[in-house]
Amino acid sequence: MADLRVMLVCGSGASSGFMASNIRKAAAKRDLDIEAFARGESEIENYVSEIDALMIGPHLGYLFEEIDDVIGEADVAVVLMRPDYYAALDGDAALEHLLEAFSDADDAGTADDGSEAREARDTSDAEAPVAP
């Protein structure tokens, strides 16, 4: 089993499928055990209990805002992919962004009440969503 299971979503899973493949290649070059796969946005709820991270296509920015309703209490890091690397299908840059999100969550430590940080949500440098 992979150390990290990552689901990428776009409208139908097609473009995110190419990105998932490129992330797997980038992870293999770094000797990282990451399982990346793609699905359409309508399938998120079916996989929430099986993933560690959810990467959302930049054109689905609205979904990023509503993700709590979709994932509920699941311990899933959520990353809104950046348009620059998504458009280029740059798996190395996407992997780096994903790893940064987990690093940010680790740096955040615990909340004031002592509970663990539930999600890594990274919107830094994110541009306005692109219409589908």
Automatic annotation (TrEMBL):
Biased composition (Basic and acidic residues): 115-124
Keywords of this entry: Kinase, Phosphoprotein, Phosphotransferase system, Sugar transport, Transferase, Transport
Residues that bear Phosphocysteine: C10
Region of interest called Disordered, as start-end residue ranges on this chain: 106-132
One GO term (biological process): phosphoenolpyruvate-dependent sugar phosphotransferase system
PTS EIIB type-3 domain boundaries: 3-108
Cross-referenced Pfam families: PTS_IIB
Descriptive protein name: PTS sugar transporter subunit IIB
Originating species: Brachybacterium endophyticum
